[in-house]
């Protein structure tokens, strides 16, 4: 199930095999204009397909679902959207799976037994790039691992490594301009543009211009 996307709101995809849970989350977020539920999926395959088409910034994900569990869904979505943030929302109280979830690269973990306001706070913390964990963590070990994961994520594609010309070409490529159009606009050769494109992809560790566009959307450099 998908919904229309409006403006620059923070796009959230809900994945849970219980529709009432997702409707409850959607109602919880309804008063907050900046938090937009763009889709809901009850099965892993639907979740992956919706993630590919909707490009959410946050995945709120249950762990226990039929056919495809939450961890498998997380990995599958990450294959398509490497920088989507994942907040686990689960009724599972066993902490033994936390190391595996951290390896997946989750940003937050909220138990369904918590008050709804805790989930809302967790979403805001994750949205602002801070880890959130409701499990007891007296030594802060798990929170530290989550923070390290976030630091690695943010440094993996560091736009500050780009030169002014590379940033200019980055924006033009992300805006859908062709090599020829960029060359004509900047009064440089197509070969020079191709070289800059290669350097961009290398520095940002991207595979294609499509990946570059996704990164530009994430940083708000282009509109969707």
Explain briefly what this protein structure is.
The protein is of the alpha/beta class and 224 residues long. It has helices at residues 19-29, 44-54, 70-80, 98-104, 116-127, 141-156, 164-174, 179-186, 190-203, 209-218, and strands at 10-15, 35-41, 58-61, 85-90, 108-111, 132-133.
Give an overview of the whole structure:
The radius of gyration is 19 Å and the shape is elongated. Helices cover 50% and strands 13% of the residues. Helix 8 crosses helix 9. A 6-stranded parallel beta sheet has the order 2-1-3-4-5-6, with helices on both faces. It is of the alpha/beta class. Residues 2-7 have low confidence and may be disordered. It starts with 9 loop residues before the first strand and ends in a 6-residue tail after the last helix. It is built from 10 helices and 6 strands, in the order E-H-E-H-E-H-E-H-E-H-E-H-H-H-H-H.
Topology:
Layout: E1 10-15, H1 19-29, E2 35-41, H2 44-54, E3 58-61, H3 70-80, E4 85-90, H4 98-104, E5 108-111, H5 116-127, E6 132-133, H6 141-156, H7 164-174, H8 179-186, H9 190-203, H10 209-218
Parallel strand pairs: 1-2, 1-3, 3-4, 4-5, 5-6
Helix pairs in contact: 2-3, 7-9, 7-10, 8-9
Helix-strand makeup class: alpha/beta
What are the segments in which pLDDT stays under 50 over at least 5 consecutive residues? 2-7
Number of helices: 10
For the termini, the CA-CA separation is: 20 Å
The H/E string reads EHEHEHEHEHEHHHHH
How much strand?
5-15%
Describe the largest sheet.
6 strands, parallel
Please tally the β strands and state the result.
6
Question: Portion of residues in helices?
Answer: 40-55%
User: What global shape is seen?
Assistant: elongated
Radius of gyration: 19 Å
Order of strands, widest sheet: 2-1-3-4-5-6
